[in-house]
Each structure stands twice: as structure tokens, then as C-alpha cells.
Amino acid sequence: MVTIKQVYEAREQIKAIINETPIISSNQLSSICGNSIFLKGEHVQKTGSFKIRGATNKVKQTVREGASFVTAASSGNHGQAVAYIANILGVPATIVVPEDVTVSKLNAIKGYNGNIEKCGTTSAERLPRANELAKLKNGVFIPPYDDPYIIAGQGTVGLEILEQIEDVDVVVVPIGGGGLISGILTAIKETKPNVKVIGVEPEMANDTYLSLESGRITSISGTATIADGLRVNQPGDMTFPIINRYVDDIMLVSEEEIRHALFFVLERMKQLIEPSSAVTVAAAMFNKLGISDKKVACVLSGGNVDIRKLYKNFPEKDMG
Ligand SMILES: *Cc1c(COP(=O)(O)O)cnc(C)c1O
Fold first, then answer.
1. Which fold is adopted by the domain 51-141?
2. CATH of 4-49+147-313, one of 3.40.50.1100, 2.60.40.10, 2.40.50.140, 3.40.1280.10
3. Is the Cβ atom of 231 under 6 angstroms away from ligand 1?
4. What is the pTM of this model?
5. I want to staple 315 with a disulfide (CB 3.0 to 4.6 A). Which of 25, 217, 259, 279 is the partner?
6. How far is the CA of 276 from the centre of ligand 1 (A)?
7. Cα dihedral value 127, 176, 143, 235, nearest 10
């Protein structure tokens, strides 16, 4: 288990690098949801997602322990975060990306001086390659979620929420591999256990939901949800026990609900978020939370979206 002390230590380690992100609210969103909604804006975090928190804590630790090279397997936010912090610390990073990686993501990694290696199209191909590369060059592989330093780093989002939103009742968090929610659960349940933490997954990527139901790690086959940051087949060996112990509930949202929430936040609130962030707003907007008149914090986990592809993800019908 990760402890609250590790989350406090992570906060010290990362505070000079990361932004304390804003809380954004909208009366209109609150009235649609029947709760006071506060959005925690990690979409305006350095590198465009919360992933920089865990990556900074972990890469700093490995460098302290003597690493002179790091690798990651990711086309997305984790790869960008590892490239960014490695560049700041002056260690080379190689990010193993899929052959069909989008140009915008490639450019972001290159912009942080990350080396790129293309490999296959699935994480089953990328992961062993990133591990192998790390061993070849005496480096360290930086995992995306199943690591105590990563989890503790992500947990700093929870500390900020408790400070920024006085008397918050419920915190709503997207779940991919579970690093973000495990960190937030540690931060919140070990300081203010009465604050509820609710996880959200797409219906199409409900692996943690199923795992919780059966009481053990359960995997799903590949998923094509538009929430690409949540396309994970099963929760982690380290994240699942934390989720299983502490989470209050997990809710599922449909692809259409994700689209509606993303569109609402963009059009009405002028905030560009990615589908993986929109799941928490969708859960609040479509009454999945089963609560009213509460203070609810929805984590907007990231804002990295290919705007050329965004239009086709807009909902077909108006909500009225
Ligand atoms: C990685 C990611 C998630 C999921 O985080 P986990 O720690 O894997 O559960 C959610 N949203 C965005 C934007 C992400 O990049």
C-alpha cells in the first residue's frame, strides 16, 4: 500500500515543477447536475495532463538512485510527461510509441527532446520493448500507473482538492490503470474518510468495475472507447487493492454521454478537455452519482486531444 506520508513527500518533490491547477465552476452545469460542481483543471497542467505529477516523482527518484536513462511505453500523456521531466533533469528518454501514433503526440514528445521508437500497435508489444531498451542501456523503465512513486505523485491532486474546495462531499475520478484514483483515495481516505470518492469508467472499458464486482483482478479484451487514456484491459496489481479497499463506488458512462459532456464543457465553459476527462462530467450530468445538493469535485484529468479529430466526436443530437 501507498501511505499518505508518501503523498506528502511526493508533493515536496514535484512542487517546483508542476502547476497547482485551478478549480472551475459553472452555475449552469451545477443546475443541470443538481449538485454544486467544481472541476479540477488538470487539463491545464504542464504537458496537458496530471501524468506529469507521478512521472516527476518517479523519474526524480530513479535519477537519485543513479539512473542515467529512462524509457516509457506510451503514445499519450504518460510518454509526454516522462519526456518532459527527463529533459528538465537532463537525462535522455526513449518513448516507445505505436506505429500509428498521431502526429500531434509525436511532435509533443519530440518537442521535449524525447527519443522515439515505433513498435507495433498494442501495449503488449510496446511494454516489453521499453523494458528491454531500459536494460540494454542501463536505464530504468517508468511504468504508467503500477508503482508507489507514480501513485503517490498522482495523489497530490487529492491534496489540492481538499485544500481548494472547502467541505467537498464527493470527488469523481476517471479510471484507466487506476494510478490516479489510487493516489487520490490514499490522500483523501487517510485524512478525511467521510469524503466520498467515486470512480468512472466507460461502459466499453469496465475492467475495474468488473474486478470490484468479482473481488479480484478481471480483464476485458481490447476496447476502442473514445476515452483513449482509459483503454486499459485490467487494473494494476498495486492499484486494485487500494481501489478495492477505499473506493465508494464505480459508475459507467456511455460513449454518447462522454461526447455530450465534452461538448458541453467546450461550448459552454470554453475548456478544451479530452474524452478521458469528460467521463467524470458525464457521470455528474447524467445522474449516475445518485446524489443531490452536494459539493462535487470532478477531476478533468487532461486536455490533450487532436483537434482535427475532435469534430467527429461531437454528439449527434442536442440535449435540449
Ligand atoms: C492516464 C490518464 C487517465 C487514467 O489514469 P490512470 O492512472 O491510468 O487510472 C485519465 N485521464 C487522462 C487524461 C489520462 O492521461
1. Rossmann fold (3.40.50)
2. 3.40.50.1100
3. no
4. 0.97
5. 259
6. 7
7. -80
